[in-house]
Design brief:
Number of strands: 12
Radius of gyration: 24 Å
Shape: elongated
Low-confidence stretches: 1-21
Order of helices and strands: HEEEEHEHEHHEEEHEHEE
Helix content: 10-25%
Structural class: alpha+beta
Oligomer: single chain
Mean pLDDT: 89
Largest sheet: 6 strands, antiparallel
Strand content: 25-35%
Length: about 290
């Protein structure tokens, strides 16, 4: 057993400069265990690292062979996720502190398919081309904190509309004798039927029956009328923000009512010609399954 361990250890030493694809790290770069090449220019090792789910404020650029600029340097906001493929630059971002700057060389085929959602590598490139991301971390926040920052910015931009929407909802609650408290974002949820206590998590595929209406009672959509609940991954931005937050509060089989302010709904534009700008939305919802 000891002999076998020594052989494996020697093999690890020989492969330490190679990726899982067998490529040697370019000069000045190191490789992670998953084969991502990285080189830091600034690295504050004493600072905190972001966690999966954090919102990252970064400046990002992407080039191929140093000549083809795929993404010019620009500020972006992304959410840090678990790496989904070998050489995913998400692995590199997770290694960065605020103020850090670094370059990451990735697998061009995997990146085009998984990041740029291309069906395959474009014909003008080939698998041996060098794709590099240059990244600087400006800041990062927990998702909840970032959401609150954005909400506050929207409310300050539309003070009159925000005040009017709140007055309308307060009047609605008073008229219908509803006693509800808002979440930190301003969402209201009132349970009407208990569930079994089993709660979904971010990423859970949930099935929800609903009827959506405006504050004046106008119904604009209903899965019940169609006879089929909506199906979506929770917390992934596939539905309006008020739904992602509200359904997370429910357990399987639970029914309730969501009161969603415009900034967690369809904002200053409305939707589909039936939901006006700055509309408060009311949804009767049932978490059927997940």
């Amino acid at each position: 057993m000891k002999k076998a361990f020594l052989i494996v250890s020697a093999l690890c030493v020989m492969l330490s400069g190679l990726t899982g694809c067998g490529k040697k790290a370019p000069e000045g770069y190191k490789a992670t265990k998953n084969g991502l090449f990285y080189k830091f220019y600034v690295c504050d090792k004493d600072a905190a690292l972001p966690e999966v789910g954090y919102v990252i404020d970064l400046t990002l650029a992407c080039s191929i062979n140093d000549t083809n600029v795929i993404i010019p340097p620009a500020k972006n906001i992304i959410q840090l996720m678990e790496p989904s493929f070998t050489t995913d630059f998400m692995e590199g971002i997770a290694m960065m502190h605020i103020g850090d700057s670094a370059s990451f060389i990735v697998n061009i085929d995997s990146t085009f398919v998984n990041v740029f959602m291309a069906p395959k590598l474009p014909e003008e490139f080939n698998s041996t081309d060098v794709m590099r991301f240059d990244i600087k971390i400006n800041d990062f926040y927990p998702q909840s904190e970032y959401k609150l920052k954005m909400i506050e910015a929207v409310k300050q931009h539309y003070p009159e509309e925000t005040a009017r929407a709140k007055e309308e909802l307060d009047a609605y609650f008073a008229e219908h004798n509803i006693d509800a408290k808002p979440t930190s974002t301003g969402l209201y949820y009132v349970m009407t039927q208990e569930g079994n206590g089993e709660m979904p998590e971010v990423g859970s595929n949930v099935k929800v029956h609903y009827t959506g209406k405006l504050i004046d009672g106008t119904v604009f959509d209903s899965s019940i009328e169609r006879g089929e609940p909506i199906d979506f991954p929770l917390g992934m931005g596939r539905v309006i923000a008020g739904w992602d937050e509200g359904i997370m509060l429910m357990s399987k089989g639970e029914k309730g009512v969501l009161y969603i302010p415009y900034y967690l709904g369809y904002g200053d534009r409305g939707a589909g010609g039936v939901i006006p700008p700055f509309a408060t939305l009311i949804f009767d919802v049932e978490l059927v399954d997940f």
